[in-house]
Specification:
By secondary structure, the protein is α/β, with parallel strands linked by helices. It has 16 helices and 16 strands. The chain folds into three domains: 1-150 and 168-220 and 302-382, P-loop containing nucleotide triphosphate hydrolases (Rossmann fold, 3-Layer(aba) Sandwich); 237-301, Orthogonal Bundle (DNA polymerase, domain 1), CATH 1.10.150.300; 402-465, Ubiquitin-like (UB roll). Helix 6 (224-255) runs antiparallel to helix 7. The protein is flat, with a radius of gyration of 23 Å. Residues 174-360 form the OBG-type G domain.
């Protein structure tokens, strides 16, 4: 999930402090979503600094979204789930500026500008666009960890329940050394870098969508679609190489009548056909059974993509021709586009909470780019949020759409899933209207759901288990 190199300098991360609202920051996540990046004028100086090897930091880059469930401290304790984004992007696309804006790591730029392999981690909690940071170095990448907030629903529930603590879901950003043309053939960080991406669930590709004569582009001109295709092709080439090697082995397994080999061979041939056309593996439109046959390969171009179009502050609301080009491109592939501005995100972190909305409204937008990105991530990965609510704490939990109640309970603790009996459930709207779980029960709004219940967005749940 992080940056790769031949010699790695690492120091132990600082212990994660409790955040201002009582939650504990999560350890390093395990499942991920990758993103690539766009640039802003603020990024120019940082990206032009030469690395110790004499090479400029001119690699495409991105962010990976990770998801992990940590082990509980003791039976009955909540399991902390986190999300993580790992960043990559072209030189002067705003990878550094975007990461700095969302993780408040400007003071740590010195660690990253001149070092190819030694990188900085930052654990952060975001609430109302304010961030608390702790930092450390690692070979995995520059990190900033955030709550997915503000979430007015969570705050409302907490106020009704007089909760001592409010605990939001977390998101982690990892900025890594990037991808160069030829990475699939070993250029730059090569296959080591690509191997890190394989642990991701999706890709957020941050793209430069602004003009600035003071900010050069690695290819000499601004062309977001070209930048998309540059990174996409490297992933396609890497996948094709992997599939070809795997196919040779599977063909021998077919001869030996190994179970599942025939199905895997057919799926590999189907994917190779589109890869040879320069298209991503996801264009093969595999069946669920075929995807299952290839899941161990973790094909890079099989992952869903979110395009984050990085624009100037002046063009955040209306967009521009570059944004339209990205939107047209994404329309053909069925991917989502989010318009962001690293400049605006950097400004937001200097404002008081009450000033944030006024500033956004003055720009003609309703929410920050980071907020839009989080929403796009949830849609892309098919995620839902449910709540647990009580006097000790009110907490948000993220699950995949379609999960039944026992599996949803399992994100709190595995014992909840194994011993699941039933779940007292009330919708968020009904809970707020009634004012409490007891009042909801008195008014017939509280439901007792069993093992086959599919948890809905914003359900407020109380699990009962053996």
């Amino acid at each position: 999930m992080g940056c790769v190199a031949s010699t790695v300098e690492t120091s132990e991360p600082e212990s994660s402090p409790k955040n201002a609202r009582g939650s504990q920051t999560a350890p390093n996540p395990g499942r991920t979503l990758l993103t690539s990046s766009a640039n802003s004028p603020k990024d120019a100086e940082a990206e032009q600094t030469a690395s110790p090897t004499g090479l400029r930091n001119s690699r495409p880059g991105g962010f990976m979204l990770n998801e992990e469930v940590t082990s509980p401290v003791s039976p009955g304790k909540s399991i902390l789930r986190s999300k993580s984004l790992q960043g990559l992007g072209h030189k002067e696309t705003g990878r550094r500026a975007t990461f700095d804006a969302v993780s408040l790591q400007e003071e740590e730029l010195a660690h990253c500008r001149s070092v190819k392999r030694r990188v900085t981690l930052g654990q952060a909690e975001v609430r109302e666009y304010r961030v608390q940071m702790t930092q450390s170095r690692s070979s995995e990448g520059n990190r900033g960890q955030f709550e997915l907030v503000p979430d007015d629903r969570l705050d409302k529930l907490a106020s009704l329940a007089n909760s001592e603590k409010v605990i939001n879901e977390m998101i982690e950003y990892v900025d890594i050394a990037g991808l160069v043309r030829g990475a699939s053939k070993g250029e730059g960080l090569g296959n080591q870098f690509l191997g890190n991406i394989r642990n991701t669930d999706a890709i957020v590709h941050v793209i430069r969508c602004f003009d600035d004569e003071n900010v050069t582009h690695v290819d000499g001109s601004v062309d977001p679609v070209r930048d998309i295709e540059t990174i996409s092709l490297e992933l396609v080439f890497a996948d094709a190489d992997q599939c070809e090697k795997r196919l040779k082995k599977v063909e021998r397994e077919v001869v030996g009548q190994v179970k599942g080999a025939k199905e895997e061979k057919e799926a590999l041939q189907k994917v190779l056909k589109v890869l040879e056309e320069g298209k991503p593996a996801r264009a093969a439109k595999l069946s669920e059974k075929e995807e299952l046959a290839l899941q161990d390969l973790s094909l890079l171009s099989m992952k869903p993509v979110i395009y984050a179009a990085n624009v100037s502050e002046e063009e955040l609301a209306a967009g521009n021709e570059y944004v339209k080009a990205v939107q047209d491109f994404a329309k053909e592939t069925g991917d989502q586009v989010v318009v962001v501005s690293a400049q605006v995100e950097a400004e937001l972190k200097s404002l008081d909470a009450e000033e944030v909305q006024d500033y956004l409204e003055s720009l003609g937008v309703k929410e920050s780019g980071c907020g839009s990105l989080v929403q796009a991530t949830y849609r892309t990965l098919g995620l839902r949020t449910y709540f647990t609510c009580g006097p000790k704490e009110t907490r948000a939990w993220t699950i995949h759409a379609g999960w039944k109640a026992p599996k949803a309970a399992g994100v709190i603790h595995t014992d909840f899933e194994k011993g699941f009996i039933k779940a007292a459930t009330v919708s968020y709207d009904d809970f707020v209207e009634c004012g409490s779980e007891e009042a909801a029960k008195d008014k017939g709004k509280l439901r007792i759901e069993g093992k086959e219940y599919e948890v809905q967005e914003a359900d407020v749940m109380h699990f009962r288990f053996n």
